[in-house]
Amino acid sequence: MSGSAFDWMRPEGDTSLPPSDPLAGFPGVLDCVHCGLCLEACPTYRATGIESDSPRGRISLMRAQAEDRVAPAEVARWVDRCVMCRACEPVCPSQVPYHQLVERQRAGAAADRAPSFLERFASSTSRQRLFGRLARTARRIGLLALVERWGPARLRSLARAVPRHPRAWRPKAGRNFAARGEARGVVALHLGCTYPELLGDALREVVAVLTAEGFDVRVPDQPACCGALHAHAGAPEEGAAAAAATLRARGDADAWIVPSAGCAAHLLAADPKAPVAEPIEFVRRHGLRGTLRPVARRVAHAPPCHLLNVLGGAGSTDGMLSETPALAVCALRDANLCCGAGGASFAKQPEIAMLLGNAKAQAIGDSGAEWVVAGNPGCMLQIEAALRERGVRAQVLHPARVLREALGAELPD
Ligand code: SF4
Ligand code: SF4
Fold this sequence. Notes:
The chain is of the alpha/beta class. The chain contains 21 helices and nine strands.
């Protein structure tokens, strides 16, 4: 793919926009000073070296669209390749609110389109169940392997996201898992759209850790999706409504435990004061009361982008790993770069997702890790698919697996 680089950019110094311009309300688009400090942080730019695949390039494209200097379809072509990892935001000296610009651009481009397959999937628990059943059966009988090899591109990328051993675990609404020993509080468990059908073991690990640490875990009746997928797809109203409904579903529990960094970031964007917590950070903040036993494994941490760049909570998992006796923590090259899962890119932008996934799988292979932990379902699916394709033998797990083993906690039924 060739990039047209800078030919659509305006000369430096002229930052005017017509008052009627839809981007006039976004001071961030004018705040970009083209310094390029974001380039090295951006996984898509690092993968392709094309200016239009960088935050700086996309911001300039959005501005050029607002000023009628480039066709919207050309802008969408490049903005859609952004995995929304937000690694460009913390390094930007002008504090350009990059994700807001992208969400606004996508919302404009998506105004009259039909909801995507992923949005439909996320919006209904019964659809998730049906998809989960079909996906697990298709994986078991080998159909997905055929689709991955011979199917059309879109179907192929969906098929490769289904793990080799998908596991369903969807606790019923209203179920309560009792704290072990003296209770320290009550938390609500956010299930999310992906864990219950494909990665149920991760939810069980989280419940085991929380109950072992003295928390009653409730499963509230909750919306099928927190709305993050809708927001990424350019449907901000639906995304905000689903987030508000999800936050209300917590009831009187002390905290919403959200094992998915992407969902936690979306919920906190809707209400920054909401008691939303990532499970490892939550139990460590309350002080681990169990004694950690040795876990003799070689483990690498692939921190989800939203944990790193939005929630700032990756240090909790790193701290937990480094404190676990006998655990060998394997350094991962470019651990801060997105694995390609961001913004459901595996389904919508398979080419870029594959490039980033391959780089992550290569780094994991080189690290010598036998376990890779990632606290986000999209990352778990994407990394497992990339490892499978490259023939790297490492198991992908939620970080709660390590803590559960270290605590010697029992898994719930
Ligand atoms: S770091 Fe910020 S100001 Fe500099 S080029 Fe990137 S977006 Fe623009
Ligand atoms: S959000 Fe991530 S992929 Fe998108 S421009 Fe920023 S750093 Fe690059």
